[in-house]
Amino acid sequence: MRAAITVLPGDGIGPEVVAQATRVLAAVGERWGHVFTLREALIGGAAIDQTGTALPPETLAVARETDAVLLGAVGGPKWDDPRAKVRPEQGLLAIRKGLGLFANLRPVAVNGKLLHASPLRPERLAGVDLLVVRELTGGIYFGDKLRDADKASDSCTYTVTEVERIVRTAARIARGRRKKLCSVDKANVLETSRLWRETTERVMKQEFSDVALSHMLVDACAMQLIRKPADFDVIVTENMFGDILTDEASMLAGSMGMLPSASLGEGKSGLYEPIHGSAPDIMGKGIANPYATILSVALLLRHSLGLETEAAAVERAVDAAVDRGVFPVDIAPSGVSPASTGAAGDAVVAALRQ
């Protein structure tokens, strides 16, 4: 296979973890005979510094021409003034919109060697293998925003079409897993959630009767993710709820440094990134955990390129590295010398070549 991939290192530790992820891509190409052409471009704070905008038109043009996009992270203290008209995060929102991406997939699985890294007791983590499907283009983040001297407001809006398409995406995935879909809302309070619940029930009844549907209020879901996380298979929810719940769920796996994500639209192209931020406090120290970005490569291979064998091999290679005790600083047990960013990348590449 020949494929073109846009690479957006971004800010902070983004370039460091992306460098290891592209090494893994190269190893995959070498082992299976694929040719991956990488086209690097600017986004976030790095783009602001060079062009004055968080998403230069050239970056979006390149992203639209390629088969997938691999992103590091955006943001940092240098651009952290909330009153600034141009902020790094605007680049992330703009590229999602520009590529028509509406479904954010965040898988959470627990490696037995990382039970020490989670704040939960080990018995609560047995059998955890869940996927959160978060709607990306609607809700309070994109609603009208008003502010004067005495008050402020953020409008939360969802259309039936937006709910239908995210539910269909989540249900198709659930159909290929354990056939359990939990829709999370706040239907006891919010009108948008009542629309969400009614639409979800109709779509599931008409199109996915073979998938078991349940509903859960977002506060109850937050509790259940800690109390009995293994009960979940696929969770589908709106933008802000998904943002919050997936950060909570990252603690099941021990660290945000272990969790990848994929943002998908109607076609094959997608945006793949770790769920963590730019971590400016450790930038340049060579200690950032690259596993989440490498696992994002696995999602890229699976969803945009259709290379399931290669995707599964990358995931097994990360597990093999962890099983060998190659622990970056965020997941290293007490008394164990942490592995560098490069050493973690070396361990994954070595496992792939074996």
Number of helices: 12
The amount of beta strand, in percent, is 15-25%
For the biggest sheet, the summary is:
10 strands, mixed
Low-confidence stretches: none
Distance between the termini: 21 Å
What is the helix/strand order?
EHEHHEHEHEEEHEHEHEHEEHHH
What's the count of strands? Answer: 12
CATH homology superfamily name of the largest domain: Isopropylmalate Dehydrogenase
Output mean pLDDT. 96
Using the CA coordinates, give the radius of gyration.
Answer: 20 Å
Sum up the overall morphology in one term: globular
Name the helicity range: 40-55%
Question: Short summary of the structure?
Answer:
By secondary structure, the protein is an alpha/beta fold. It is 42% helix and 19% strand. The strands form 2 sheets. Strands 2-1-3-12-11-4-5-10-8-9 form a 10-stranded mixed β-sheet, with helices on both faces.
Characterise the protein shown here:
The protein has 2 domains: 1-100 and 267-354, 3-Layer(aba) Sandwich (Isopropylmalate Dehydrogenase), CATH 3.40.718; 119-252, Isopropylmalate Dehydrogenase (3-Layer(aba) Sandwich). Helices cover 42% and strands 19% of the residues. It has 12 helices and 12 strands. Strand 1, helix 1 and strand 2 (35-40) form a beta-alpha-beta unit. Helix 2 (44-51) crosses helix 4 (88-98). The mean pLDDT is 96.
